[in-house]
Amino acid sequence: MGALSGGITLRRYRVNGSAPKDFKEVFEKGVRAHVLVPINVESNEDKSLGWCSIFDENDLDLSIDKFFFEGHIMLSLRQDSLKPPATMVKRLLKQRQQVIESERGQLLSAAALRDLKAILVAELRKTTPPKVRTVDVVWNLDEERLAIYTHAKSMNEALLALFSQTFNLGLDIEGPALWAKEQSEGDAKLTAQLKAARPTLELLHGFVGLRPTPHGHEEGVSLSSALRGEQHLGA
């Protein structure tokens, strides 16, 4: 969802560095090396993360012509999760426990119950379809900017790691911090002021009476002053 359909919710990044001259060959190798690998039901893994086609989440055979379009790298970040529903595991475990205890005429030990649960989960993994989540990613090579169509923390963190591994380039989130850094380039005074900047009391403590605050008022004032290198003399 995101780039081609659905709601438009995105987070922008600035790419650190430019694409190499032979980027088509390099990027194809990188993407193909980091496509999503489906979860093996016989293993213990419960999550898998990688690239897939932005047009078809089941297309994992990614050549350059499938994700490079008019100066843009267009991919989907796909995450598969395979974990049998806890309520189902609990219900079936209780049923099997009752059957076994009835047949044996004695209660199962805690260790035996753990083993029984592990067997049951392994069986359910073979019949439980993985939960698939995809998020669109669009990278404008000329502008060196990238957009991921979600604000979810987990997927943004996954993008940072996977993008670096795939393209050997880093990302900086595009926002006030980056804009301030760019604005201060070449100006020693602004650069020094930016480095000395610290969170305000309102950012740390919140506005009293308007929203819940993470700290008490005195604690918030003290923390703000400490970060600013000031001596707090009272409220």
What brief labels describe this structure?
235 residues, alpha+beta, seven-stranded antiparallel β-sheet, 8 helices
What does this structure look like?
The protein has 235 residues and is of the alpha+beta class. Helix content is 40%, strand content 18%. It is built from eight helices and seven strands. It has helices at 23-33, 86-104, 110-125, 153-167, 176-184, 188-196, 201-205, 217-227, and strands at 11-16, 47-53, 68-69, 72-81, 131-140, 145-148, 170-173. Strands 1, 2, 3, 4, 5, 6 and 7 form a seven-stranded antiparallel β-sheet that branches. α2 (86-104) crosses α3 (110-125). It is flat. The relative contact order is 0.15. Mean pLDDT is 85; it is low at 231-235.
Average predicted confidence as pLDDT: 85
Uncertain stretches: 231-235
State the secondary-structure class: alpha+beta
The count of strands amounts to 7
Give the overall shape, derived from the CA principal axes: flat
Compressed to H and E, one letter per element, the order equals EHEEEHHEEHEHHHH
Helix content: 40-55%
